[in-house]
Write a structure and sequence with these properties.
Largest sheet of chain A: none
Oligomer: heterodimer
Shape of chain B: globular
Number of helices of chain B: 16
Radius of gyration of chain A: 20 Å
Number of helices of chain A: 11
Distance between the termini of chain A: 33 Å
Strand order of the largest sheet of chain B: 2-1-3-4
Helix content of chain B: 40-55%
Structural class of chain A: mainly alpha
């Protein structure tokens, strides 16, 4: 790992980290690094920084390292960490807050995971519901994995689990407005 | 008993068996369900990963629609829809400010006076085990079933207010009431990875594998679930997991409500077992053919 001047980092990121804490409803000084979050995390095996390490990075003022991690994208928001934390640190919400900030800054360490959720949101904004066939099709196309899961397609259609025509909300304009109001001023 | 019904996006598609079995058992148990008119997607994971207010407003619209239609408490099958709807309800109940904020976004007067309940809790707790036992015409004859709750039915505990979040027993108790043998195992509330199996297949597959594997090594003959995505992941992906990870998993996965419907006397065809990916009709035939009290 490259050398770093910690006091400088801590000062530079102080405000930003304070904002993250406020948004997430978390006090990072509550964390005493027991590691219970990492131990219980079902995705920790695939992460570059464990959950515990992410909050440690914030404690050290190293916000950018946290924002660049794959961790915040791999987090499945299963709430195991927040639930088991002996200090009641809502790490799951902290992960989400970091992810939203990272996306805003264009730091997307897991392109496909980001794509998946963008498509999901687009579908719900457009149709009011999430049509699974469309989600898969658009994801496969967007990720370049055209043939992913094609083997399951015949059974999905034959068993009635897949529909070509998406279900729609009559007043889907209302759902669109919800999206617009919540996300106005963002990409 | 009358409930507003919020099926969620997958109940007429990948989660079709859940919807079918819920309707079958509700009929027998005297539960009247009225679908919320023109409901929208709850936002699932994608909404709360994107924006906090969005994640509350989307499910709140459904709850407000239910209120507008004069419906009562809201019963929700899908675990994600349940926890998101409950989150919206609790947020509004706990803060008049938040209730106001949500109402402005959804352009509806959201009162948040009703309760949100998962079908697992509705059937397993509200209706109760005695009423369930009374409906069983052909028991599961000791079928060893691992009850898989997944993450969103019991967490976060302050929102879900369901069962114990480390070792929930609602589903296990239902399985026992149906004549099955609940399996003690370690992955009851372990996340299946949800959409990871699509967007990050190696990671998602391992998460799913570990769950099914743990059920297997603890003696499970079947796994019961209460979430359409957990069901899809555990059921549809076993073949891929075997191919990619060199394993030999062949464990039938059921919605707990399917097991209820089958033991209540509905046929495999009516319940829709043929829709499963891992063949299940054979197992059910064998189970119902077992003599009472004898080991398989």
């Amino acid at each position: 790992m490259e050398e770093m001047e910690l006091s400088g980092a801590a000062t530079a990121n102080k405000e930003a980290i304070k904002e993250v804490q406020e948004k997430a409803g978390v006090k990072i000084t509550d964390c005493y690094q027991c590691g219970k979050c990492s131990a219980g995390c079902p995705v920790a095996f695939a992460m570059d920084k464990t959950p515990r390490q992410i909050i440690r990075l914030l404690q050290l003022g190293m916000l950018d390292e946290a924002l660049k991690s794959k961790t915040i994208w791999l987090c499945a928001t299963c709430q195991m960490c927040s639930t088991r934390c002996p200090r009641d640190v809502d790490l799951a919400t902290l992960m989400e807050t970091l992810r939203q900030l990272a996306k805003k800054k264009g730091l997307v360490a897991e392109r496909n995971i980001n794509l998946f959720h963008d498509i999901f949101n687009f579908n719900v904004k457009t149709f009011g519901r999430s049509p699974e066939v469309l989600l898969s099709a658009l994801y496969n196309f967007g990720s370049g994995r055209i043939l992913q899961d094609m083997g399951s397609v015949p059974h999905l259609f034959l068993s009635g689990k897949a529909h070509v025509i998406p279900g729609r909300v009559k007043d889907r304009a209302a759902v669109k407005r919800i999206y617009e109001k919540c996300l106005e001023g963002r990409d | 008993m009358k409930y507003a019904y919020f099926p969620g996006c997958s109940l007429d598609s990948t989660g079709i068996e859940f919807g079918t079995s819920i309707k079958l058992v509700s009929k027998k148990l005297g539960i009247e369900l009225e679908e919320i008119p023109d409901w929208n997607c709850c936002g699932a994971s994608s909404a709360h990963l994107t924006d906090h207010m969005l994640s509350l407003a989307l499910p709140a619209r459904n709850l407000a629609l239910a209120e507008k239609a004069g419906l009562g408490d809201v019963a929700v099958p899908c675990a994600a829809c349940f926890i998101r709807s409950k989150a919206a309800s609790e947020a509004a109940k706990n803060s008049p400010e938040m209730k106001e904020k949500i109402s402005k976004i959804i352009e509806m007067d959201f009162k948040a006076e009703k309760e949100v309940i998962s079908f697992l809790d509705l059937l397993g707790k509200k209706v109760g085990l005695d009423k369930i036992k009374a409906q069983v015409t052909r028991p599961l004859n000791g079928l060893k079933v691992a009850s898989y709750y997944g993450c969103l039915l019991v967490r976060p505990p302050k929102i879900a207010k369901s069962d114990d979040n480390e070792d929930p027993m609602v589903m296990d108790n239902v399985i026992e009431a149906l004549g099955g043998e609940p399996v003690t195992w370690a992955y009851k509330t372990e996340c299946c990875g949800a959409g990871h199996v699509v967007a990050k297949p190696d990671v998602g597959r391992k998460m799913i594998h570990d769950i099914v594997h743990n059920a297997k090594i603890n003696g499970a003959e079947a796994i019961a679930t209460a979430c359409p995505l957990c069901m899809l992941n555990l059921d549809m992906r076993q073949k891929q997991i075997n191919a990619k990870m060199g394993t030999d998993l062949q464990i039938p996965i059921y919605y707990f409500s399917e097991l209820m419907a089958l033991t209540f006397g509905d046929s495999a065809k009516e319940v829709g077992l043929h829709r499963h990916f891992v063949p299940a009709e054979g197992q059910m035939e064998e189970v119902f053919g077992r003599a009472r009290g004898e080991e398989a």
